[in-house]
Amino acid sequence: MHAANTQTTDETHEIAQPKTKYPTGVQTADVRAEEILSADVQPAGMRAAGVQTADVQAADRQPARQSAIDTHAHVYPARYLDFLENIGVSPDSTAVARNLRADDAETDMHERLRMMDAAGVQMQILSATPQLPFISNATDAAAAVRMINDVYAAIVERRPDRFRAYGALPLPHIEESLAEIAYIFDELGREAGFLGVALNTFVGADGSLTDPALLPIFEELDRRSAIVYIHPAGGAAGCSAIADHGLTWVNGAPIEDATAVLQLLKADYPYTFPHITFHIAHLGGDLPFLAQRIQDNYDDWHAFAHSPAETFHRLYVDAANFHQPSLRMALETYGVSQVMAGSDYPYFQDDKYTRAMDYIRTAGLPDTARDAVLFGNAKRLYQLG
Description:
Blueprint: H1 56-60, E1 68-74, H2 78-86, H3 91-94, H4 106-119, E2 121-127, H5 138-158, E3 163-168, H6 174-188, E4 194-200, H7 215-223, E5 227-231, H8 240-243, H9 248-266, H10 269-272, E6 277-280, H11 287-301, H12 308-312, E7 316-318, H13 324-334, E8 339-340, H14 351-361, H15 367-382
Helix pairs in contact: 4-14, 5-6, 6-7, 11-13
C-alpha cells in the first residue's frame, strides 16, 4: 500500500564527529552525543516476552513527568478518506486509516486529548501522511490537500494549546503544489499553527523525492526556510519481497525512511537546499544501525558528496520506535539535539501511547538529554514558547 494512492498498506561503531560548521540557519544544541552514555545508570530496557535488564531497580526509577511534544501524530477524518476514494485513491490504502479514533469529530478528539493527558503530552504535531492524494488528476489532488489543510487549521484554531500541523501538498503536481505552499505559508501560516510541510517518501515519477521534476518544490521550500517532514508512503519501498509477505508496515516503512534519506544524501539535497530542515520519521529507519557502513562508503568510495556522519547531525528524527537501545543508538548517531519524541498516533493508543513517551523517560538518559528529546528539541525547531 503506497500512501493514499493505488498501493496497499554488541558492539557499536563510533561515528566520526562533524569537522565543519553547518550552513547558516541549521540549528544544533551544544550537547554532545557522547553524554548519553556517560550517565552511570542502566537503561530501562524491555521486559516484554521475558526480556530483563541488568538492573531492574534502575529501570523502575521514573523521572518527573514532563510536558512532552509529540512530533509524529495523524488525524484522518472519515470524510477526507471518503473524498480520497472518490477521486481514485484505492480503498486498500485508506483502510489502514479508518476506524482508529483518528477523526476530527468531538468524540475522537476527546479520546485523543485524554490519552495525551495520561501520557504527559502537551502538544501533538499533526500530519496527514501517508494518506495523501498521489493521483494523476491534478485538480482533484489539489482539492484533497486543501480539504485536509483546512481541517488541520480548524483543529489548531479550536485548541492552539494542544496542536500544530504540517501542511499537505498534491505531489507530484508542480504548479498545484507551489500554489498550496503559498496557501500554507502565506494564507494559513504560523498563526494557523502550520510549521512546515509533510511529504511521503516516494512521490516522484522515478519513485523518489529527488526526481528532477520536483526540483521547483524544493527550491521554493528552501526559499522559505521550511521544515520538511518525511514519512513512509506505505509502498514497501517498491519491493515485492516486502509487500508480498505482509511486511509493508513491519519493516517496509523504516526501510522507506532510510532509503529516502540516502536518496537525499546521494543527490546532496541537504547542502543544495541548506535552508530546508528535514524531519525524518521513526528514528530514520535503520540509518543508525548502518551509520558506519554508510560513512565507510563515503570515506573509501566517495559514494556521497558530503560526509553522511556530518549530515546526520543536520537532520531531525522522531522517536516513534519505542525500543530503548535503538533510541540510544540514534542519540549517538544524530546527536542529542536532533531527536524528538513521537508516537505515530493513532496506531499506538492508550497504554502504548503512554509507552511512546515513557520509554524515553525510563531510558536511563541524563536529565538534559531526556528533556531535550521529550520537548526541548521540538521547542527549538518549531520556535515554540
